[in-house]
């Protein structure tokens, strides 16, 4: 590399001798000579010399002033001063002012060349240092920019992960993804999702200019996408592979479809891929930048997180639907009723959590009794709902076999795994004696509200069901419901609040229940409104209420499903009413047999396989018991030659029988006279 040197001196002989000497002693050197300081300064301002050699005293300009001007113009160019006799002090001042060296006259050529070589080396080293410093500063700036970009990207990924995790449905997760992508990833983002049937739905559009979003929607509405056809979006949806289009022009074939906007400069189409399935895609476009492979990799990372959240949301929605369907199918669709016994129930699932294991049941038992159940399986989801169904069906089976409540609870223990836990309250109510026999396995105690408005809990119980093979349960407990009393069963979601002792919740329930009125439906609404205040809870809430009252001795009304199991319930309810009305036992027996025969005919002939009800209305009128058994079905003809004698039996037992068929149902009217002495 040729070194350029400027020689400044008013000595003509020196200006001719020194350049020639330097060319002979130094290779690759170019020397310019000038005898005027003003011209020298002009050349220094225009040319970056590697060294300047100047006389310390030039005509018109002081040596120190010349050096200062050179330092102002080129502070990094080494300057060597040539001094004469008597100028040593001036030379020393110049060295202090920034001169590299001074050469005394007469000039020692060897020293002069050596000093000049050192000056050129210093100049070269300084240039290298400056260049390295500039490169380091440039690299540091680039690194800082990269670190800022990566930090911003990681922050966006972290924020996106939190947003995706908080989304409980697939559409919300996709909306979050598209909205968070603008402007960090692109100026425009369009989110597509594949439905279960393969149809594409455009769910979200985000633009840096919100006023343009509707315009984009309008443009997209004229661009249908069929995954089975060609096109960039359809290809990504079919293959699950991302597409990067760094430069888009009218001649770019891949820019067809949604990327066909002439204002778009670059685009990306990224699939929403989770568990090996393509759930949708996101289209990114920009009219100000060119997307790189790094941009695509970041978009893919963002879409992977969103796709997993979308798939999890779908799985959650599917599992919740299955669990809720299973749970609701296991809850009674309607509550059985008996004369003098009114019932009501409520079930409130927690939101937005998965379905839990709260359940209740109410069913008829032999002897005219009723079974009441309230239970809670710990946990949530399909498995918990399945455990709940297993316990519910098993409890019914054991109860219908006649086992007492404590034996029923003990048998349930063998059906639950050691990893599960459940609480169960089971009671048997006999409306003929007003007695309640019950067993409690870790469940909150039922509340009994007396006819005078006072309330108390049914105490006593045992630990929850935990799969212990040799459980120890106390015997069945007993209580008596006074006529007009209400028994309230509930799950812990009603009385347990985080941060508050359960005793406080139980006390509040007592206070609220005592302020309720006598109607069960209104009572349950009042309890829920006063305790929950219309706010969702973190746990499911189930309520079951039963109220027992005395029968009206002058009339009776029964309406039950047309099912064989309803006939015994009708018989026991009728016998109870006849007993309270003071009807003699022989008459009561004949009446009960006749009514049950008529009800059995309704069960067999009126509805076939369709659901329906049988209604029994009875009254005591002027020494006669008048009864009507009605249905709303269409009777089928008798099957076989040895059938159809039910009405003959009814006619033999009652004083009069009349069958009234009609298009809307059939009514069997019966009456039987009872003697004055036989009645109370």
Q: Secondary-structure map with pairings?
A:
Blueprint: E1 3-8, H1 12-25, E2 29-34, H2 37-46, E3 51-55, H3 63-73, E4 79-83, H4 88-96, E5 101-104, H5 109-166, H6 170-181, E6 188-194, E7 200-207, H7 213-221, H8 232-239, E8 243-245, E9 266-274, E10 277-286, H9 293-330, E11 341-348, E12 356-365, E13 369-380, H10 382-400, H11 405-413, E14 422-430, E15 435-441, E16 447-449, E17 455-457, E18 477-480, E19 486-490, H12 502-514, H13 520-532, E20 541-548, E21 555-561, H14 566-580, H15 585-605, E22 613-621, E23 624-630, H16 646-653, E24 656-662, E25 665-673
Parallel strand pairs: 1-2, 1-3, 3-4, 4-5
Antiparallel strand pairs: 6-7, 6-10, 8-9, 9-10, 11-20, 12-13, 13-14, 14-15, 15-18, 16-17, 16-19, 19-20, 21-22, 22-23, 23-25, 24-25
Helix pairs in contact: 2-3, 5-6, 5-9, 6-9, 9-10, 10-11, 12-13, 14-15, 15-16
Tell me what you see in this structure.
The structure is a single chain. The protein is an alpha+beta fold and 680 residues long. The chain folds into four domains: 3-131, Response regulator (Rossmann fold, 3-Layer(aba) Sandwich); 167-321, GAF domain (Beta-Lactamase); 331-548, PPM-type phosphatase domain (Phosphatase 2c, domain 1); 555-673, Histidine kinase-like ATPase, C-terminal domain (Heat Shock Protein 90, 2-Layer Sandwich). The protein has 16 helices and 25 strands. The strands form five sheets. A five-stranded parallel β-sheet has the order 2-1-3-4-5, sandwiched between helices. It has a five-stranded antiparallel β-sheet with strand order 7-6-10-9-8, sandwiched between helices. A five-stranded antiparallel β-sheet has the order 11-20-19-16-17, covered by helices on one side. The longest helix is centred in the N-terminal third of the chain and has 58 residues, at 109-166. The chain is rod-shaped and about 165 Å long.
